[in-house]
From TrEMBL:
Residues 45-151 form the Rieske domain. Keywords: 2Fe-2S, Iron, Iron-sulfur, Metal-binding, Oxidoreductase. SUPFAM superfamilies: Bet v1-like, ISP domain. GO terms for molecular function: 2 iron, 2 sulfur cluster binding; iron ion binding; oxidoreductase activity. The keyword DNA-binding does not apply. Pfam families: Rieske (PF00355), Ring_hydroxyl_A (PF00848). This is Rieske 2Fe-2S family protein. Its cofactor is Fe cation.
Length: 417
């Protein structure tokens, strides 16, 4: 265990065995956490919010990533802006955490004042020769992809986000997420490393034993199974399910809804996976009875049988269904604490208590997130234990975890570790 803490990060990366979880130090060490922040949350594209977080001009919300603080806002021309929450005078924070409505950005320290496009317009007591034109708020590289806001804090953001943009712009168009509204939001702080949070989300090996609410609508076999572990009856059911997937995907795509799996998981900078999944049971939505929670469907959607368009990134997961969408954003707080911010989206005109029931809308993923939080805490406690040794991933149910660990090592090395 002492070697885990004494060895350089590069030695930990070198010691990772193919097909196995990461060495303990990569989950629990503070120096690794700081490296992760720099590599994966400053130099890669991360999901930070939604267009509909700021639906009207003057709406603003603050998102903190490590020591960086970002302001997402909508300006007077109805355009989304993302700027650093750092006054150009002496660096004071301009806005507090959370959401607000503003007409201008005014630094509370010395009242330097900026327009909503970031232009500095008022800097008292700086003299007549002071040039305000070069002191605008620093912009952040960002892209709005189908209403999801991705930001990169580097001046040289990875170019391969273009594939994510190409794939998801088409897939998300019918849901019109830009014009949805946030019906509910939760912030859950998990007692575990951010990579354990992502790993837990990328497999459903654990679902049947831990997520009874989710399994009403979610098919745990979708992400792999060991055919030798199933009874002949269960194996036949699994084969029938695979055949149903092929047929359902063919029909969806024939109707103009892209559905087949698209993966960019290794050998890349921007990590993502998307696929239209079958919803079990009543087949409409991820709710306690798998029926739609909102009678007013999203965007231009007119049918409830379009399944669940899921999207993974390295700090987010999303589920887009006919009646509502779920967007979860992962923000690391420390080596052993991770914020999971979940938003439930409905049609912008949907009225709570009339078009949707909030409890039905949120029950499944409130329960699932709480259950996952406990599982992540257990995994992190195990990584802290001197008895921990990296374990083998299932080659049937955890192939995406193996790819995530491989990608993690690749990107760390690409940035000099």
């Amino acid at each position: 265990m002492l070697q885990t803490f004494a060895s350089p990060i590069s030695s930990l990366l070198d010691s990772r065995a193919d097909g196995h979880s990461l060495p303990a130090g990569l989950y629990i060490r503070d120096d690794v956490f700081q490296a992760d922040l720099d590599v994966f949350f400053r130099k890669h594209w991360i999901c930070v919010g939604l267009d509909c977080d700021v639906p009207e001009p003057g709406d603003a919300t603050v998102v903190d990533i490590g020591n960086s603080s970002l302001i997402i806002l909508r300006d007077d021309d109805n355009q989304i802006r993302v700027v650093h929450n750092v006054c150009r005078h002496r660096g004071s924070r301009i806005l507090n955490a959370g959401s607000t409505v503003i007409s201008k950005l005014v630094c509370p320290y010395h009242q330097w004042t900026y327009e909503l496009d970031g232009e500095l317009t008022y800097a008292p007591h700086m003299g007549a020769d002071f040039d305000k034109s070069c002191k605008s708020l620093r912009p952040v590289n960002f892209k709005s992809i189908g209403g999801l806001i991705y930001a990169c804090l580097s001046d040289n953001p990875p170019e391969d986000i273009d594939r994510l943009e190409q794939v998801m712009t088409e897939r998300l168009a019918p849901y019109d997420i830009r014009n949805a509204k946030v019906a509910h939001q939760t912030d859950v702080i998990e007692d575990g490393n951010w990579k354990l949070t992502i790993e837990n989300n990328r497999e459903c090996y654990h679902c049947s034993a831990n997520h009874p609410e989710l399994c009403v609508s979610f098919v745990d076999l979708d992400f792999g199974f060991d055919p030798e572990a199933l009874s002949p009856e269960d194996l036949e059911e699994a084969r029938e399910h695979e055949a149903l997937y092929a047929e359902r995907t063919r029909r969806w795509e024939a109707d103009g809804f892209p559905s087949a799996a698209v993966e960019q998981l290794v050998g890349c900078a921007t990590n993502f996976r998307t696929q239209r999944l079958i919803i079990a049971g009543a087949g409409e939505s991820q709710t306690p009875d798998a029926t739609a929670a909102s009678s007013k469907l999203l965007g231009s959607i007119t049918r409830k049988d379009l399944g669940d368009t899921h999207l993974w990134g390295h700090n987010s997961w999303n589920h887009f269904m006919g009646d509502h969408a779920i967007v979860s954003i992962v923000i690391p707080l420390s080596a052993g604490k991770t914020l999971v911010r979940t938003k439930w989206l409905v049609h912008k005109d949907a009225v709570e208590g009339v078009d949707y029931d909030l409890e039905k809308l949120t029950d499944v993923w409130v329960a699932t997130t709480d259950q996952d939080s406990e599982l992540v805490a257990r995994a992190h406690a195990g990584a802290l234990d001197p008895a921990y040794l990296p374990g083998p991933y299932s080659r049937f149910s955890e192939t995406t975890l193996d790819k995530f660990a491989t990608w993690y090592i690749e990107r760390m090395r690409a940035h000099g570790y």
